[in-house]
Write a structure and sequence with these properties.
This protein is mainly α and about 200 residues long. It contains ten helices and no strands.
Length: about 200
Amino acid sequence: MSWLSKLADWMQQVFLPWGVWGLAPAAFFDSSFLSLAGGVDVWLISLCVHNSAQAPLYVAVATLGSVAGASVLYLTVRKLGDVFVQQRVPSGRLAYVRQRVERFGSWALFAACVTPPPTPFKLFIIAAGLLQHSFQKFVLVLFAGRALRYGIEGWLAARYGTQTWQWLLRIGPWVAAAMLLAVVVTILALKLRRPSPPAAR
């Protein structure tokens, strides 16, 4: 049995009875100040497998909880700035992520939302806060990205049941890579379509 299957079994035995009431705070804290290392995805899939009729509700709760938690982290960083991150975040990794957010803006945040671990999702949130990224755009991008990610997981779990675990193990990383590639291609296409500034005379 794979580690993901073992984790799924454990989540089902311990937390599944909490249902949606456990999913909401889990998604909130996982996107703010704690880290469940993919636990929210496992929890969401477990619930959708157990009760497929409620899959849309579970997806909505996970999405809203994640956006709310990420917003709290974003606003905290935006207010406290470097004072908050100096003792909590590796400066080298943050510098790299910050460059990505500076260069690609909301697209970088969207890519971080839809791709699974080990993508440093929280570093993108922190970078957006440090750069004073538009809060309205931040919320919209996170909602779209998380809804897409959790929506796909919920649909697969509701349709294919426990087979979803094997699907994620076998081709999930390839799907995530394809989604990330699509985002990158879209960014490049938009940049190429922008008119070049007039040459100075």
